[in-house]
# Entry
Amino acid sequence: MSTDWDVAVVGAGVAGLTAAREAAEAGLRVVAYDRMAPGGQLVNLTSVHDHPRPGEVAESAGLVSRLVAEAEAAGVVMAFDEVTRVRPGPPARLETSEGAVTAGAVVVATGLGAGRLGLPGEEQLVGRGISTCAGCDGPLFRGRPVAVVGDDEWTAEEALELAEVASAVTVLVPGEPRWNDDRARRLAAAERVEVLTGASVTALRGEGLLAGVVVATPGGERELAVDGLFPYVGRRGPGGLVEEVPADDAGRLRADGERTAAGTVLVAGDARSGAVQSVTAAVDDGAAAGEAAVAVLRTAAGEASAAGLRTAAGPGLRIVDPTYGVPADEAEGAVAVGGGADWTEVALFSNSKPNATELLRGVGGRLQEHWALPELGFASKPNASAAADKDVIDWLSQRYKMVLVAVGD
Amino acid sequence: MELEKRGVVAPLLVTSTFLPLVEAQAKARRVTPRVIVVPHPVGGLNEQELVERIEAAAGALLPLADAAREGQ
# Structure
């Protein structure tokens, strides 16, 4: 059976990168898809608690760097396309934003979507008071009251991080907390944190900007004035992405271990129904899924064919760009200078995070003065978690010699 | 990073917290980015704090931009 890839991994977070590395180290041709960038949920965390061992703390960005480096060293190809559909086959067929590809086995490691309450007006307030990243957006709420909604370890960590900047943090737990005793102690010791159990948000207040929430508690309904709301409930798995694979109520794929009902499709990390949501568990899950993918291929092709695959495969990273496909070999990695424009053509490109545009305009203004530029172009993407629009990139690259980009805050 | 690959000089303003992540992404994309690091965070700063970030970033950008222009 000829396929584009031996193993395709959907999602390049902790579980996905680990699975991809495991399969690549077995000599298989492995591609790992992520529509944005590698790192998954770690991108939204500044630190990871209880990793690599209980009681220890790891810097999330460093962890992402290591996972990417290890996958790269094993020969994993990163592809920044969005996978929109998986048909198990065999061979498995993946519909992506750049066309269809086939694979002998697929590991689904998409994780879960952002937390949502499912209330009217919620989407309009995302980025205008509603956030799911305390590390990114917490400083926006310095000295102001916020609420956090959820019951798990992540909720507790985000609440503790917010307590360092916010004037008050109300943790709204829909049922009973599921966080461990250590976090319970830390929350209890935090002066500005109040935990309300049996509390759920029933309405949002505010026009254009969040001004408060309505909270239903066992004692009745009450208004809570908050400027920030961080929901960690209602996170959905990739249910519907894969044909023939059932999902639970939260959209997480049902599986026996890492194996789904479809023989060619495995699932790893938070995308799996019943998964323990921790980095350590995701690493273990990813490794098991990678091993299972190798076993799937060996079973399908027999040991002799698997040995053949091993010979055919080789290390080396190719980048499949989300928009522009595979670059020519000679151009790969090149950082050339010289678009069609001249040096009077300079633009700013903002990711629209708070103050990103102001920072860009300030710094750009200094360059404009320094080079006596007649004007500065400007473009932005609507939010930091969306990929840049292809047309905007086309326009910037054709029109400008230099583009100052605000990418990370 | 895609802009750099297309021949556009594209300095990236990155806060210190996200620098390792940007470096990881650059490595995955086989690009050596021109990075200007500013202290984290940028969001939530008052006017004076933002001015300080702008001055620091401009101090790094101007020589980088001059070098890119002269190097062509």
About this structure: The mean pLDDT of chain B is 86. The longest strand of chain B covers residues 12-15. The beta strands of chain B are 12-15, 35-38.
